[in-house]
Amino acid sequence: MKPRSTAIIAVAAALAVTITGCSASSSAPQQAAASKDPYAAHTVSPGFTTKGGNINVLMSSDFQTLDPGNSNYVQTANVGQLYYRTLTMAKETAGKPPTIVPDLATDTGKVSSDGLTWTYTLKDGLTFEDGTPITSADIKYGVERTYARDVYTQAPQELNAALTDDTYKGPYTGGDLKAVDTPDAKTIVFHLKQPNPDFPALASRSNTAPVPQSKDTKQDYTNHPVSSGPYKIASYERGRELKLVRNDKWDPKTDANRTALPDTFTFSLSTAQATISQQLIADNDPTALTLDSNGALQASDTSRLTDSAVAARTASGILGCTDVLDINTTTVTDPDVRHAIALAMDRAAIQVQYGGPRFGKLTNSYLNDAQVGYVKETTDLDITGKPNLAEAKKLLGGKTIPTSLTYGYSNATDRYKNLGTVLQQNLKELGINLQMVAIPAANYYTTLAGKDMPDLARAGWCGGAASGSTRTTVDPNVGPSLDGTTYGFSNIPRYYDAKVSKEMYDLRAKNGTSEEINTDWSNLYNEAMKTYPLVPLIRSFTNSVVGSKVRNAQVGYFFGSIDLSTVGVEH
């Protein structure tokens, strides 16, 4: 998944993590303290069923994209479930990994006896917003678009990597995606390189959102993707406002997953996070919520969460999302230098910048013990989170040390800038001057994937949140490209090792049980981590305050913010 948008995208799987040094504290939410679990989930006003009203979503920046074919971001996946549907869906439950359920399809897929084909049958009564029937060809076309990497630089690739056709370049260059068949208007068949018991989770990715070929406007499709869900875009002014209204061609009888309670959603796309935090806590707009990570809460406002009235309006939950510091291995090429950076980091101080234990647990891995095939990490990160400067300096003895490095951060989020300030102080002890580079939030992950990637950058991943497999974290973040010749497109640290990356590439075609295959992925992750392409930081626990009229507000394990598919509003 996927990166987090003010945190990345997103893909699908079930994250948990090896935790270090976190215990219950007096700052834990009241509902969590009552359960003796500082990370217990809390849903605001569950059980609400009344339709009508408007939800006002306050955001500090625009979406990276609204195009399901160009989205590797959890914010897009969250709002996307309002206007597009997929073959299957990762259905959220607060505090727990999602469950894969049928969406456009009648079931989660039928697999052949050899495990190499998955077949889906579409439900009756499915239409686009203009009343045109949704067919298997529309879904195949949606998948085909994600192969056009020259057009869609952030297209999710996990499903594509599982399919047999590695040479297809998308629908705009001619030719047909032979890995996907549509024998009739209601049937779609996927051909896999090797059996993949986790394929139903891949089918929940935005690749399978139907796109009518006649309405495909390429890069401009982000301005008005054609709706297959309960809402459609009424207006969209980039950087200012997005308005969703009901799609009267959506048939609720075909959709057991979305309550579609509000009449409209209004997204304000340029509100400063400090303002969002203050407005939500003060309940200035009783119909408001936010999708910004950590509920846009500022460190100066977190003490208010202990107020009983505010606590009652605070949705919270542990996430399948982990933040890391990615190290650009093409510019910081010496593994010992990267290891020294890791050892010099004061991760406990970084946790404070996130708001303290209330907002997440220190972790030593991108993986967690809830994922299929998890193998405990083998790297020697400082277990307490405190810096080990003596060991870091020992590693650098006789080495050519970079005198200056750059750290990129999203300019919409203060804690990411503050993280850089901590790093500046840490790396100064090693004789390294760290320069801060502010990156516009709307272009953040595009920048990290491009030629302007800085030496160090914070990133987040919620990709372990739907299938429960280690592969859906390892392959996107440190895996090779589809052809195995270089690093993958969402591999921000640009990790590529001739031996380990080849083993990852070969593993994509290996047969075996889910446990066996994912254990291999976990072992290869641990092997890659011996050279420190990234440093795990925080497994997120989100507190997100909502307005006093908002109902059914739960924090999505995968989305890392309020799940828009469940909310309602008193009116």
UniProtKB/TrEMBL annotation:
Residues 1-24 form the signal peptide. Keywords: Signal. Gene3D superfamilies: Dipeptide-binding Protein, Domain 3, Periplasmic binding protein-like II. Residues 99-468 form the Solute-binding protein family domain. InterPro entries: Peptide/Ni-bd (IPR030678), SBP_5 (IPR039424), SBP_5_dom (IPR000914). Residues 197-231 are annotated as: Disordered. This is ABC transporter substrate-binding protein.
